[in-house]
Design goal:
Layout lengths: L6 H24 L6 H21 L9 H7 L1 H17 L1 E3 L2 E3 L1 H18 L3 H23 L3 E11 L8 H10 L3 E9 L5 E11 L7 H4 L1
Helix pairs in contact: 1-2, 1-5, 1-6, 2-4, 2-5, 4-5, 5-6
Length: 217
C-alpha cells in the first residue's frame, strides 16, 4: 500500500469497490433480501474509504516510521468490520424453526472485506475475492437446486376414538413405508376418547418439491 496514493489510485479503488458492492448487491436484491443493492454498495464503499483514510493518515508527520501511530490508524478498518457485524445481525430473522438472512449477513461481511482489499490497493486480491463471491452466490445456487436436502414438518392427526381410528403404530408404519423418517411422536387424549397424535417427520427432497402425498392423505 503506497504511503502517498494519487487521486487516480483512489478513483480506481473506489470504482472497483462500487463494482464489487453493486454486483453482489444485485444478487441479494434480486432475491428480495433486506440488504440489497444500496446496502451492499454503501458497506463496500465505507470499508474502502476507511482503508483509504487510514492510508492518507499515514502521511502525517512520523506516520511512516512511528509504529504506534500506524497501529492506531489501522484500528479504523477493524472498527468497520466490527460495526458491520451488528448490521449483519439485524439482517437475520427467525420465524419459528426457520432462520432467514444468514447468507445476507455473511454477504455484508464479505463485501466489507472486498472494500478493505480495494481500499488498501490490493486490487488483485479484491478482484479474486469478488470472482469467488459471485461464484458462490450465483453458481452454487444452481448446485443447491440439484442437491437433496432434509425437509421436516410437524404432522398432527386428530382421531375421534372410534374403533376404526388408526393407532400411533399404524400411522408411524404408513409414514415410514412412504419414505419419511419419524423423528418423534406425541399423543394427547381429550374428551370423548379423542386422541391427537403429533409426528415430527423428515424426508430428503429437492428444493421447491411439494409435500409428500402421504402427509395430505
Amino acid at each position: 500500500m503506497p504511503i502517498a496514493p494519487t487521486w487516480q489510485d483512489i478513483a480506481i479503488r473506489l470504482a472497483l469497490s462500487v463494482l464489487a458492492g453493486g454486483l453482489i448487491g444485485l444478487n441479494r436484491g434480486g432475491h428480495g433480501r433486506p440488504a440489497g443493492l444500496r446496502t451492499n454498495l454503501l458497506v463496500c464503499l465505507a470499508a474502502a474509504l476507511s482503508m483509504i483514510l487510514a492510508n492518507l493518515l499515514l502521511e502525517s508527520p512520523g506516520g511512516e516510521h512511528d509504529q504506534t501511530l500506524r497501529m492506531d490508524v489501522m484500528r479504523l478498518p477493524l472498527g468497520i468490520l466490527t460495526g458491520v457485524g451488528f448490521i449483519g445481525a439485524g439482517a437475520i430473522l427467525r420465524r419459528g424453526d426457520l432462520v432467514l438472512g444468514v447468507t445476507t449477513a455473511a454477504t455484508l461481511w464479505y463485501v466489507t472485506m472486498l472494500g478493505l482489499c480495494f481500499g488498501a490497493d490490493r486490487l488483485g486480491l479484491g478482484v479474486a475475492g469478488l470472482a469467488l463471491g459471485l461464484i458462490v452466490l450465483w453458481g452454487l445456487r444452481f448446485a443447491e437446486r440439484l442437491m437433496k436436502q432434509e425437509r421436516h414438518a410437524s404432522l398432527t392427526v386428530t382421531c375421534d376414538g372410534s374403533v376404526a381410528a388408526p393407532s400411533e403404530a399404524d400411522l408411524r408404519g404408513r409414514l415410514e413405508a412412504a419414505g419419511l423418517k419419524v423423528a418423534s411422536a406425541a399423543s394427547h387424549y381429550g374428551v370423548a376418547a379423542q386422541r391427537t397424535l403429533t409426528f415430527d417427520v423428515r424426508w430428503l427432497a429437492l428444493e421447491d418439491t411439494p409435500i409428500p402425498p402421504i402427509v395430505d392423505a
